[in-house]
């Protein structure tokens, strides 16, 4: 029972950065923008959050710095792809390259700096309940925030007028423009929200999961986040499920090794990626359903003709 | 207020002028960056952009570095024009190295004039086979080829690691995870004596010409372009999307596979776990820098190669951290991509009525 | 005709003079020493520690040397170019500090016979290529003893990178050391298939702790596991550099790589003209491997035991791999009293009997 609890707690930690990064990317994609620079925004968020926390001594300031830095990176992407109408795929890749370099440059002053453990919000009484207590009521604030964000995004996209507009922009930007919605402005907001979320994901990595700053520490998690959005067929709640499934496979892989399972480490390490492909196939098989969720204008350049 | 107004047709002058404009902007931004870091900016620029060109060996190394970028970039560009998004060339590159390299290892110590062609063939087939997975899943199950091909990059890298730890490991290598050094006949001959520049670059040039002819002269090449620019028209004309997706993946996968094999049989000379160093991803940027045009890609690849080698020179001579190089490269790319807009648009005062809409020629990654 | 000849002669003389002048200038020039690192110097592990060695060289020789380095050099096709570029740029002595630089180093060395090369952790030498490595297993043997003394659960967690001899040797040495204290000790190993992925290292540390390990060892380069151990309230050993800053309570000790003296010696040898090809595999005795100061969790008696073991290894009285030792499958490897040869160690691809789990092939 203890082992199971610990495994599940490990899954939460592995999944949370992915939840942040992919829920943000989902909103950006719903508005019709494909930003492949998640990895770059995440790593800049990671160093910014770390530096912010060290400088101010406050986690709140640090987390905000991380989110702002991610949003700033996303704004840069916005200038290139929305204002200057450059290709989104190429700009996203360039953003990742730039982000990895920039974070390393800023981070030189922070290698070897250590932070205390990130506080958990042990909710009184409830967190004392065996098993369920620590799992549900004993997490840190960012974990709760990640769940709240997913719920908020789900609510926003389906239940609010603004969400409807955002989806309309992603669905058919010419029509949305025709009705009089500010397509570019809406996309800027969506992309920057995505950047801020990626920044939070990075912040979780450098402030909670490890918690320290090292170069290249995102190690490909931004790309996984991108995959999770499609994996979830652009549905917020499924993003949550996907991130936890991926985190779960990663952790199970490590545990099965420690248990002495006789499988090659490399093959086990492949599992999360292969699982993503398999689920992707299962979900995409139904063309009609897929079309229903995928934003039609994803990645397309918009130019206001009048 | 300035406003971007679409041009009636792409401006040829801008097409050639914008890269220089971008480099100029990068120089200005780089000047600020290096000054901020407390390094002599002029010297740093000189080391990055000029010094490598003055040195015979560095030029040869530029060719070495540009070879895989050209090969992969050209292949990807064909797909990108059709809106087929192969993001996983890195994986096809790795698999091509494995299959092609395995042929050499299987033949060891035998050689012969047929060995190298056999390896190249195996490399191309390996890359194609790996590319067939996303192509199949896309055409059969509608799964996003962007993500499938990307996930397969990780799988391929791990597979290479698995193989050099096991079956392909050098029997005399103290169990270190790398294959034996290839036999003489399995190594690509040098293009320029006493340098590492190899005949792969010539193959790259050939690929540039072939791609050019393909896109300009052949029916399927035409279909590729139409599908990318006007999918509905393409469907109306009865072009088979399935056929085009497969064609694009086979071309880009095959070229990436050959590039991988050239890398093992050329500069490296054995299979090592750290063979994939990101050419597959850099080639995507190269493809766009070259505006998806084969000749443009050739120049873009050479430019990228120059900044890599110049970055190393700056690191050696000025102790510039390697992170500076990626920041600098990132800026160069941003400016190049940003100034692209001037080819299809012009700056005008806001308020004037805009000309009729012309969709920018750049294709988009959606169905 | 004559005039032309005279002109040539004058030109020749001038040229000779000029050349002579540059040669003289070169003699007074500082010795150029270059380092090639596989990771960023900010990794706080392997490359970081080599860079500490580079700085030691700078401190020792001041302006008699000109030191440069290139970081983040991948072990693939780029390595050869970087090394060649350094050689061509006039470096007199080049240290290539990762196993994957072996073949590139050898290749470049044959093209630049006048330049001296030093390659870490490989096995190929040449007229102008020396190799050097440290006997980390000696440190890990002692770490095994300390961990068995301190583990309450009898389980040690080991975060491993890739199943190369170096790493396998370390796991075996740690186990053999631990077994001398507690014959029932268990070692659980997780292979993370990476030298450097702090997130994954941290997750692996967590998984090991969840399965009962209360002392962690690692053969990966980031301090993430140390940081985790500090939070979880368990113990860990640092890798390559002193990681006490990341785990002031958790760190028991750290197995340090100290390249300083070796780098200084070799630079000096080139200056004196006494440099010759050498195969160096130094350990605790030469202080290439060192133990960081013990952490507060190590009680006095354990310190005494560890120090005694260290003294015995240094004096040669004790070799961590002394028979009888069987391989994992029970087949015999070393007879009673027999010591493992360096060749056996350097190509080790099996676990010794008692280690759990399988070795990835």
UniProtKB/TrEMBL annotation, chain A:
Q: According to its UniProt record, where is this protein located? A: Cell membrane
Q: Recorded GO terms, molecular function?
A: transmembrane transporter activity
One Pfam family, short name please? BPD_transp_2
Its predominant location is membrane
Q: Which InterPro entries match?
A: ABC_transp_permease (IPR001851)
Listed GO CC annotations: plasma membrane
Transcription as UniProt keyword: no
Q: Which UniProt keywords apply?
A: Cell membrane, Membrane, Transmembrane, Transmembrane helix
Q: How does it sit in the membrane?
A: Multi-pass membrane protein
Membrane-crossing segments per the record: 6-26, 33-53, 59-82, 89-111, 131-158, 179-205, 217-234, 241-259, 265-283
| PANTHER family in the record | ABC TRANSPORTER PERMEASE PROTEIN, SUGAR ABC TRANSPORTER INTEGRAL MEMBRANE PROTEIN-RELATED
Q: What is this protein called?
A: ABC transporter permease
Q: What species is this protein from?
A: Methylopila turkensis
TrEMBL record, chain B:
Which terms in the Gene Ontology molecular function aspect does this entry carry? Answer: transmembrane transporter activity
Could you confirm whether the keyword Nucleotide-binding appears in this record? no
Q: Does the keyword Ribonucleoprotein feature in the UniProt annotation?
A: no
* Keywords carried by this UniProt record: Cell membrane, Membrane, Transmembrane, Transmembrane helix
What Gene Ontology cellular component terms go with this record? plasma membrane
Main localization of the protein?
Answer: membrane
Under InterPro entries, the record lists: ABC_transp_permease
- Where is this protein found? Cell membrane
Which residue spans traverse the membrane?
Answer: 20-38, 58-80, 87-108, 114-137, 146-168, 197-215, 244-262, 268-288, 295-311, 323-343
How does this chain sit within the bilayer?
A: Multi-pass membrane protein
Q: In its UniProt entry, what is this protein called?
A: ABC transporter permease
Automatic annotation (TrEMBL), chain C:
User: Has keyword Signal?
Assistant: yes
One GO cellular component, as annotated = plasma membrane
State the UniProt keywords alphabetically.
Signal
Q: Has keyword Signal?
A: yes
* Cleaved signal peptide residues: 1-27
Q: Cross-referenced PANTHER family, in alphabetical order?
A: ABC TRANSPORTER SUBSTRATE-BINDING PROTEIN (PTHR43208)
Q: What is the protein name stated in its UniProt record?
A: BMP family ABC transporter substrate-binding protein
Can you name the source organism? Methylopila turkensis
């Amino acid at each position: 029972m203890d082992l199971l609890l610990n495994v599940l707690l490990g899954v939460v930690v592995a999944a949370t950065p992915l939840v942040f990064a992919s829920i943000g990317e989902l909103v950006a994609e719903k508005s019709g923008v494909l930003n492949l620079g998640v990895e770059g925004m995440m790593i800049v968020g990671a160093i910014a959050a770390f530096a912010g926390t060290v400088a101010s001594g406050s986690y709140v300031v640090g987390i905000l710095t991380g989110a702002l830095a991610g949003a700033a990176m996303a704004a840069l992407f916005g200038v290139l792809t929305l204002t200057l109408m450059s290709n989104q795929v190429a700009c996203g890749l360039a953003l990742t390259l730039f982000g990895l370099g920039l974070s390393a440059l800023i981070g030189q002053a922070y290698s070897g700096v250590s932070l205390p453990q990130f506080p958990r919000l042990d909710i009184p009484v409830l967190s004392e309940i065996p098993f369920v207590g620590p799992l549900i009521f004993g997490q840190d604030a960012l974990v709760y925030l990640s769940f709240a964000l997913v719920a908020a995004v789900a609510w926003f996209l389906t239940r609010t007028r603004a969400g409807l507009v955002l989806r309309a922009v992603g669905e058919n930007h010419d029509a949305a423009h025709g009705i009089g919605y500010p397509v570019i402005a809406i996309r800027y907001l969506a992309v920057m929200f995505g950047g801020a979320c990626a920044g939070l994901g990075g912040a979780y990595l450098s402030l909670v999961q490890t918690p320290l700053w090292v170069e290249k520490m995102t190690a490909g998690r931004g790309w996984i986040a991108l995959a999770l959005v499609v994996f979830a067929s652009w549905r917020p709640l499924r993003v949550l499920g996907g991130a936890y499934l991926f985190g779960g496979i990663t952790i199970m892989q490590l545990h099965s090794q420690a248990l002495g399972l006789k499988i090659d480490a490399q093959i086990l390490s492949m599992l999360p990626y292969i699982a993503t492909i398999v689920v992707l196939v299962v979900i995409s098989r139904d063309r009609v359903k897929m079309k229903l969720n995928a934003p039609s204008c994803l990645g397309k350049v918009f130019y206001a003709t009048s | 207020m300035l406003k971007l107004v679409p041009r009636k047709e792409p401006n040829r002058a801008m097409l050639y002028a914008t890269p220089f404009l971008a480099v100029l902007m990068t120089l200005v931004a780089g000047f600020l960056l290096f000054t901020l870091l407390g390094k002599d900016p002029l010297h740093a620029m000189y080391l990055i952009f000029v010094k490598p060109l003055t040195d015979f060996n560095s030029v040869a190394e530029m060719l070495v570095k540009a070879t895989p970028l050209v090969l992969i970039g050209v292949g990807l560009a064909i797909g990108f024009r059709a809106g087929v998004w192969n993001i996983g060339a890195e994986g096809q590159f790795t698999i091509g190295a494995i299959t092609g390299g395995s042929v050499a290892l299987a033949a060891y110590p035998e050689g012969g004039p047929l060995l190298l062609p056999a390896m190249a063939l195996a490399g191309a087939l390996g890359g194609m086979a790996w590319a067939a997975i996303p192509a199949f899943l896309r055409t059969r199950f509608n799964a996003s080829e962007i993500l499938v091909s990307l996930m397969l990059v990780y799988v391929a890298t791990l597979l290479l690691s698995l193989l050099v730890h096991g079956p392909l490991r050098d029997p005399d290598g103290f169990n270190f995870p790398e294959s034996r050094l290839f036999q003489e006949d399995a190594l690509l001959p040098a293009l320029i004596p006493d340098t590492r520049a190899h005949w792969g670059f010539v193959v790259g040039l050939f690929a540039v010409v072939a791609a050019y002819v393909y896109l300009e002269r052949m029916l399927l090449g035409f279909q590729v372009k139409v599908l990318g620019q006007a999918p509905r028209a393409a469907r109306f004309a009865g072009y088979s999307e399935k056929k085009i997706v497969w064609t694009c993946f086979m071309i880009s996968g095959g070229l990436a596979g050959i590039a991988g094999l050239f890398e093992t049989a050329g500069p490296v000379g054995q299979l090592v776990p750290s063979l994939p160093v990101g050419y597959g991803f850099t080639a995507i940027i190269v493809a766009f820098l070259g505006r998806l045009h084969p000749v443009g890609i050739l120049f873009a690849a050479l430019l990228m190669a120059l900044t890599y080698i110049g970055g190393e020179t700056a690191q050696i001579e000025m102790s510039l951290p390697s992170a500076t190089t990626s920041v600098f490269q990132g800026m160069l790319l941003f400016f190049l991509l940003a100034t692209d807009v001037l080819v299809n648009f012009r700056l005008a005062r806001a308020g004037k009525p805009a000309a009729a809409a012309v969709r920018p020629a750049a294709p988009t990654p959606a169905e | 005709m004559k005039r032309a000849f005279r002109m040539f002669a004058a030109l020749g003389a001038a040229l000779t003079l000029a050349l002579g002048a540059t040669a003289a200038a070169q003699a007074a020039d500082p010795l150029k020493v270059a380092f090639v690192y596989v990771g960023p110097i900010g990794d706080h592990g392997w490359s970081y520690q080599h860079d500490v060695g580079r700085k030691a060289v700078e401190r020792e020789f001041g302006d008699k040397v000109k030191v440069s380095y290139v970081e983040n050099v991948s072990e693939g096709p780029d390595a050869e170019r970087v090394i060649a570029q350094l050689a061509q740029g006039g470096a007199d002595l080049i240290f290539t500090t990762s196993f994957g630089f072996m073949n590139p180093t050898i290749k470049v060395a044959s093209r630049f016979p006048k330049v001296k090369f030093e390659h870490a952790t490989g096995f190929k030498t040449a007229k102008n290529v020396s190799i050097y490595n440290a006997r980390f297993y000696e440190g890990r043997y002692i770490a095994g003893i300390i961990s068995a003394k301190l583990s309450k659960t009898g389980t040690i967690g080991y975060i491993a990178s890739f199943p190369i001899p170096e790493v396998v040797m370390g796991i075996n040495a740690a186990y053999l050391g631990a077994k001398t204290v507690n014959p029932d000790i268990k070692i659980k190993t997780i292979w993370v298939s990476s030298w450097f992925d702090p997130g994954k290292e941290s997750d692996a540390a967590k998984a090991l702790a969840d399965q009962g390990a209360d002392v962690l060892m690692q053969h990966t380069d980031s301090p993430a596991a140390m940081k985790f151990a500090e939070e979880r309230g368990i113990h860990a050993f640092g890798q390559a550099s002193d990681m006490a800053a990341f785990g002031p309570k958790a760190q028991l000790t750290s197995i340090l790589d100290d390249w300083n003296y070796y780098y200084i010696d070799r630079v000096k040898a080139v200056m004196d003209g006494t440099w010759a090809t050498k195969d160096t595999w130094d350990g605790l005795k030469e202080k290439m491997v060192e133990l960081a100061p013990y952490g507060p969790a190590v009680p006095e008696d354990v310190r005494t035991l560890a120090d005694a073991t260290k003294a015995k290894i240094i004096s040669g009285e004790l070799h961590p791999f002394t028979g009888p030792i069987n391989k994992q499958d029970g087949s015999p490897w070393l007879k009673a009293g027999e010591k493992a040869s360096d060749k056996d160690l350097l190509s080790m691809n099996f676990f010794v009997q008692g280690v759990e789990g399988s070795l990835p092939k």
